[in-house]
Design goal:
This protein is of the alpha+beta class. It is built from 3 helices and 6 strands; from the N terminus they run βββαββααβ. A hairpin with a 2-residue loop joins β2 and β3.
Length: 101
């Protein structure tokens, strides 16, 4: 099994929305990918608690896939690309880790 974890920092304002509005939209859109991409075994998106001490990112994405092949299917899927394109417009930083369990 592959665990795919991604963190995003968001701009204070982007695409006509506040950081909080974009975080909520991104959470909804990413978690909704489960309805389009059957290769996703699980997906969860957390929004950082506002003003939480000692945190560096605004959103955490946790997802699981059977293999790197199914992770690649997810990453190349048109719905994922649509959501990723939007995130690219509103994020200021990204960090990711993929590992095998």
């Amino acid at each position: 099994m592959i665990k795919h974890i991604v963190f995003f920092c968001l701009a204070e304002n982007a695409e006509g929305k506040t950081k909080a509005e974009n975080a909520a939209l991104i959470k909804l859109e990413l978690e909704n990918l489960k309805n389009f991409i059957p290769e996703i075994l699980s997906i969860e998106v957390g929004i950082n608690i506002p003003n939480a001490p000692k945190t560096d990112f605004d959103i955490a994405l946790y997802s699981e896939f059977e293999s790197f092949d199914t992770l690649d299917i997810y990453q190349e899927h048109p719905e994922h690309k649509r959501v990723a394109s939007y995130i690219g417009k509103v994020r200021t930083a990204r960090a990711a880790v993929d590992y095998i369990v």
